[in-house]
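Handout, tutorial session.
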Amino acid sequence: MIRQNGRQEQLTFLSSQMSKLIKQKYGKGPDSCVITMEKGMMLAHVRHFKTPAEEVLIQRNEVTLAYKYRSVILEAIFEQFKHEIKKAVNLDINSFVHEWDYETNTGIILFYNNQLPLIKLNVMENGMKEYVMVKMKEIYTNICKAPSEMKFYKYNENVYIIECKNVMLPIERHLYNKGHCDLLRSYSIEASKNFDSLKGKLHEEFPIFINEVYTIWDYSINKKYIFLLKE
């Protein structure tokens, strides 16, 4: 039974359950898994659980295959974990997205309801919002289709989220509809590297240091989320 002695205890319980499921399904658990919850969304920050099989794939430059391997197992984990979320915090979750930095062996998993908007989250501070928007447009000019709309949120004191709508080109929609997700993933890996430049650029203008940047495509709803994690 899940004890109901406060939100933090519930989140600690869910963090532990997530770690156990990862170990059960992968054969190796993470060094740490910290789950936070804000306004109907749940974010898991996972560190150090790369398996020997993934190590081999990455060494052989098969990052797309490593990602697919991890995605298949995370799908199975999600089917169990969403019920744990419902029992613990009475949150209806129907979707998740994830992204990993294999070099630092860290990653994030976002659990959410894709029928609900992010508007309940706090908005990113105006000065930072305007600066990030300019830098984002510079990046998009060079690598991919600019979104029709960008929204900037402050998930909590350590995490910012940039929500980008209508980010897919017609050819990308066609590939997704035909099930060619491997090709899309291969492209997204290369495109995501460009957003890493936000780390240094933000530090130049604001008294914060962005330590991790994760770019997540949700092709099912034609959106992209960029997560900026403070040090």
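The second record follows below. Compare its token runs with those of the first.
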Amino acid sequence: MGDAAPESGPSGFWDGKKPAAVLKHELLRRYLPVFVSKTGSTSPDGRVVYFDGYAGEGRYKDNSEGSPLIAVQVARQQAAQSSPRRLGIFLTEKQRAVFHRLSAILREEASDVTVVLKHGDVAKHVNDVIDFARSYPLFAFLDPYGTGLSYEAVLTLLNGRPRSTKTEVLMNFSAHLVRRVDRANEKKLRNIDRVCGGSWWRTVFFRHHSPSRGTDAVVADYRLRVCRDTGCGSWVVPVRNHESHEPVYYLVFFSRHRDGLWAFGEALSLAMTEWRRACWKRATTTTDEQPSFGFEDELFRDRERKLEREWVETITANLAALIERESAPFSVIAKYPEIMGETLGLARGKHIREAIKRLHGEGLTSTEGKGRIDTMVIRPPRS
């Protein structure tokens, strides 16, 4: 990682996905169809645009798909719906060799999908993307290896069109880039200044004795600044290659729409399951001398069931405390962070529903837990 690192990744990067890549791609695979379907329902001709600013090679050597081919799959699936959506894909890639490999893959595998592929620095194509998207909904995925897009360019993506036009951004904010910074390396300091929109982050980072805590604080402030300057809500997801490791990067999601923020949380919960599965497989992979009989898969499922029971217990306790504290009924979405507590980003709507039904059965709420969960109103028990 560093200024000289290729934005498409180091040697061996494309051999196969590590758990961190599994998480971001599963999140994209699960959230992008929701965005396309929902926003396309009110867009002229069902048109939606996906922008991938650091497209990469498109496919790993183990044949798993990178983000461009995930988007191609989504475009194809959405076009086949009874109420079709038309997803246009705009890709940029800076590394010439990677660009040519991706171009060849797209010619073979995406001839039936509208794809624009541009060579060069993503920053030089931001305005091209805005022109391409026009008034259609736009989802931008920014996943660099190393230094990311400037703060000003991120704001251009989010603010460059009328706010009534649906725009969302999912971006990779490098933890390594900040955590390993050297006070004496002014070039790297200025690179982070560019990403953060100023030198404010230096004060935030260096006042912490722990680089990890300093990095967490920088990402938290970055998130708040973008939200302030764009009117967006947000999620921040620390992404690791193992449960005990420090984050490799943070995925930061921005949306102005409550439905988008809710749907992202649902997609994140499902993607986290696949991340845990990838971590589990790495930890339990057997050698040729130690054949597997499938016990590991059953152990993983047992572990997941235990986690889900714990989440429901936590959410049930949080809801019970809220019902006791609040003087008036409240909706799930209005109290979402308080309801989820430490399960935020792990549990999802089905776990909230189970908790509500449990409380209803115990006579602690008159809400039965039926119907749409995010807008569900939690009411005290009937007298």
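Points raised in discussion: The domain at 19-264 is CATH 3.40.50.150 (Rossmann fold).
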